[in-house]
Amino acid sequence: MESELKAKIRVLLFTDEKCFGPGIRQLLDAVEIHGSLRKAAISMEMAYSKAWKMVKNCEKHLGFPLLISTTGGKNGGGAVLTDDAKKFLSAYEEYCAELETFGAKLLYEKFEFYNK
Amino acid sequence: MESELKAKIRVLLFTDEKCFGPGIRQLLDAVEIHGSLRKAAISMEMAYSKAWKMVKNCEKHLGFPLLISTTGGKNGGGAVLTDDAKKFLSAYEEYCAELETFGAKLLYEKFEFYNK
What's the pTM value of the predicted model, to 2 decimals? Predict the structure, then answer.
């Protein structure tokens, strides 16, 4: 009983069905970095078809588009996040961060007997 | 965008490795109800060998025994939770419940724009 307890908190958001979680969060973050869904998928070692399905499925349940296709330029065929997607992603990230902070404090309180 | 957003929060506890989560919680709850690991496993449609491994693995990482074998009586060969296990399980359940409550309030606050 020497090692201190830590909590990993995973949040899935639902409307009617599962619609948003750590996987799509990571994918959208990667689209923001790479400016393309294809490159984002590659960076996560995920098949492009799977990434595309994740986006479409999430859009369907959330009720708004997540990506805008960009064309032209030397790296034509990219994608950027819609304003709605940015807002939702940022709300999810804030939500997870605040839950983690609260969760870490609560863990200490509830499991004080164990960490002694 | 008619359906309201809900969050499902999953908590895994770690010492050095993963040691406690929804699976072992459900199994220990079932042992309390059925008074036997074998019956608990059956109630969850889980192989007894898998349930036994889950318990042993969890005990190893937590550093204390979870179950005491009981013998005798007409249903001999049962098991009950140790006091340490009861204390830990109850701390985990309280932890998850309070996190859920906080999480539901926070969800409303962070995603108010979406639920409108």
Answer: 0.83
Task: Give the ipTM of the model, two decimals please.
Answer: 0.81
Contacts of B88 in chain A (CB under 8 A): 111, 114
Residue B11 · residue B96 · CB < 8 Å:
yes
Answer whether residue B11 shows pLDDT above 60. Answer: yes
**Cβ-contact A7, B13 below 8 angstroms:** yes
Is B14 in contact with A1 (Cβ distance < 8 A)?
A: no
Is the Cβ–Cβ distance between B99 and A100 less than 8 Å?
Answer: no
Q: Do A95 and B114 touch (CB under 8 A)?
A: no
Token couple for A25: 């969060």
Residue A87 tokens, joined = 């807002």
The tokens for B109 are: 């606050």
Question: How big is the CA angle at B20 (ends A92 and A113), to the nearest 5 degrees?
Answer: 100
Q: Taking Cα atoms as reference points, which of A95, A59, A67 lies closest to residue B99?
A: A95
**Phi and psi based region of residue B63 (left: phi greater than 0; alpha: psi -120 to 50; beta: remaining):** left
Residue A13 and residue B1: Cβ atoms within 8 Å? no
Interface test with A, best of B3, B19, B92 (most A CBs within 10 A): B3
Q: Residue A73's pLDDT is what?
A: 57
For A2-28, write each residue's pLDDT tens digit: 457 788 898 888 777 778 999 999 999
